[in-house]
């Protein structure tokens, strides 16, 4: 059994790091996951979305951009050897910071106490940008887990990303903060048309989730001239908290629970949608540090 397990891990690693035949034109799809306030389940949705996409055959990398408060590794029960902080400091390259998670999904920790990359010098910044070119050639989808709220770092990530999934709950303050986040991201780069989707978490039922989405969509259309799309919703599932206590993703610990089925549906929706052309991860990093 040990030999079989090691063979499976080797096969996953080989698939994850395989470069496409025409690597010069390949670029990863960059999706940011954000929320206007904390405590709405954003990181749980990020982790389980990544695992679900990986199980569907996509090469997925999660970058924990919640600088200073990185928690993706806690949700996965994995201790990374290197983080994004080490990459920006020149102590490791991007390959060393990549950590293998469940079902072949990989992640890069933001690093505890890290305040982000925009303060680096030009030489260090260019080195990091070149390092990230590797991910453009070896990943299909890169998910950026942002910090909660409307900080300068978060808005910068959303303005640079190709597309964003905004997570909210039906709570009125959460909905208001979600709209504020969308508005701030649009104002950060008024010359570009963003691509925003909405995921409603902890809804009582589909009717309530649809109502939350429609309120956000109406406000966004009226004041920002920008339609939103509902990518999915999930009920308040107690198995999510149980999975966190076990330091496992709900998609692994409880594959048939309501939350996991909801995230699986959102992942299939994402796969079925065509990705906007934004220059891949290299373009994202250039815009972010610019």
Describe this structure in words.
This protein has 13 helices and eight strands. The protein has 290 residues and is α/β, with parallel strands linked by helices. It has a single domain, classed as 3-Layer(aba) Sandwich (Rossmann fold), CATH 3.40.50. Helix 8 links the parallel strand 6 and strand 7. Helix 7 packs antiparallel against helix 13. The radius of gyration is 18 Å and the shape is globular. The termini are far apart. The N terminus is likely disordered.
Class from helix and strand fractions? alpha/beta
CATH superfamily: P-loop containing nucleotide triphosphate hydrolases
So, CATH architecture? Answer: 3-Layer(aba) Sandwich
Query: If you average the pLDDT, what whole number results?
Result: 84
Note the main sheet.
Answer: 8 strands, mixed
- Helices, by number, come to 13
Order of helices and strands: HEHEHHHEEHEHEHEHEHHHH
- Can you identify the CATH class? Alpha Beta
Q: Count structural domains.
A: 1
- Quaternary structure of the protein: single chain
Record the strand order, biggest sheet: 3-4-2-5-1-6-7-8
CATH topology: Rossmann fold
- Tell me the radius of gyration: 18 Å
Q: CA-to-CA gap between the ends?
A: 50 Å
Helix content: 40-55%
- Care to count the β-strands? 8
Low-confidence stretches: 1-25
C-alpha geometry: globular
Share of residues in strands: 15-25%
């Amino acid at each position: 059994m040990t030999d079989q397990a090691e063979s499976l891990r080797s096969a996953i690693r080989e698939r994850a790091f395989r470069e496409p035949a025409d690597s010069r034109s390949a670029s990863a799809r960059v999706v940011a996951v954000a929320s206007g306030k904390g405590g709405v389940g954003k990181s749980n949705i990020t982790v389980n979305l990544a695992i679900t996409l990986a199980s569907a055959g996509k090469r997925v990398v999660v970058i924990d951009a919640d600088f200073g408060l990185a928690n993706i590794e806690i949700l996965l029960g994995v201790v990374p050897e290197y983080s994004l902080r080490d990459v920006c400091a020149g102590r490791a390259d991007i390959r060393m910071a990549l950590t293998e998670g469940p079902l072949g999904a990989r992640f890069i920790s933001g690093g505890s106490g890290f305040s982000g990359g925009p303060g680096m010098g030009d030489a260090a910044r260019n080195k990091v940008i070149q390092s990230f070119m590797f991910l453009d050639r070896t990943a299909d989808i890169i998910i950026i887990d942002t910090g909660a709220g409307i900080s300068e770092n978060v808005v910068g990530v959303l303005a640079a990303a190709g597309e964003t999934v905004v997570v909210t709950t039906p709570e009125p303050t959460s909905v208001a903060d979600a709209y504020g986040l969308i508005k701030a991201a649009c104002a950060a780069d008024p010359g570009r048309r963003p691509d925003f989707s909405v995921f409603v978490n902890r809804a009582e039922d589909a009717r309530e989730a649809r109502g939350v989405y429609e309120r956000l969509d109406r406000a966004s259309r009226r004041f920002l001239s920008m339609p939103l799309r509902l990518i999915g919703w999930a009920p308040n599932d107690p198995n999510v908290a149980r999975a966190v206590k076990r330091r496992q993703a709900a998609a692994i610990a409880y594959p048939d629970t309501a939350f996991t089925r909801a995230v699986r549906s959102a992942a299939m929706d994402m796969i079925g949608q065509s990705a906007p052309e934004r220059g891949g991860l290299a373009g994202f990093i250039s815009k972010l540090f610019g």
